[in-house]
Design brief:
It contains 9 helices and no strands. Helix content is 73%, strand content 0%. InterPro entries: Marvel, MYADM-like. It is a multi-pass membrane protein.
Length: 289
Amino acid sequence: FGTMAVATVNLRAVTSLVGIARLFAVVLSCIAFSLVASTGFFKDAYGTWCMFTWCLCFAVTLLVLLLELLELYPKLPLSWDDFTSAFSMLAALMVFTTSVVFPSTFISSPCTSSMCARQAVATTASCLCFLAYAIEVGLTRAKPGDISSFLSTVPGLLKVFEAYVACLIFALLEIHDLKPGLQWCIAVYSICFIITLLIIIFTIGRCLSYMPCPLEKMLVGYNALALAMYITATILWPLYSFQNKNRPDPCGRECWNKCLGVTFLTIFNLIAYLVDLVYSTRMVFIRTR
């Protein structure tokens, strides 16, 4: 007699703490984009970004839940733990940004109309969605000494943070008539972003084992180099961006705010690469007993 294939259902995918956090993220992101879509008031660049964030997080998290519920993820040619850790960190960062951008852009004060009330509820759902993803990151983070899933460790999560902050920097850059010092800063942002993104992709795709040199020491060397490069960018960007510019003229208020935003984001990434270097060094050179 032939054997009949039986679908396997893993209920722990939705009953564990991580599964419950993902279910909340799916529901809350769905509430957020549904309420905003019902207003029809989201068609500029900021509104499109917010809708894209909520829809992406809803779709990918729902797919993750289904793949774990039906136990189909082992058949995928990728490191599942690295993928889910990286995405939960990315989703937390994206939803956090959206939870700040959306109300500051679309909600007016006082909030009296029905459309404004829906936007306020959508903002609340977005904030709770960020909390759900933050809880998932905390629950799936690797314990000290466990490096079986690199992107769930502190250095791995910082890699996702560094790449995301670089994307925000690119979104604020206005490239025209740049001085050599600013051109160097853009080169720093671009080089570090590309290498960090490749590390994330190669980790998820299980390709790092093919590297010809010791991976851990290579990462320490890269973090040290990226830190040195970001130190120069932290000094040169504000030095050349605000040179001979008084707020708001002649740069303009929006231009000034973008330069200031890039300055703070550069500092954030500088701190991230510093912490990344410290943790990576401890993982490589200070062995846990």
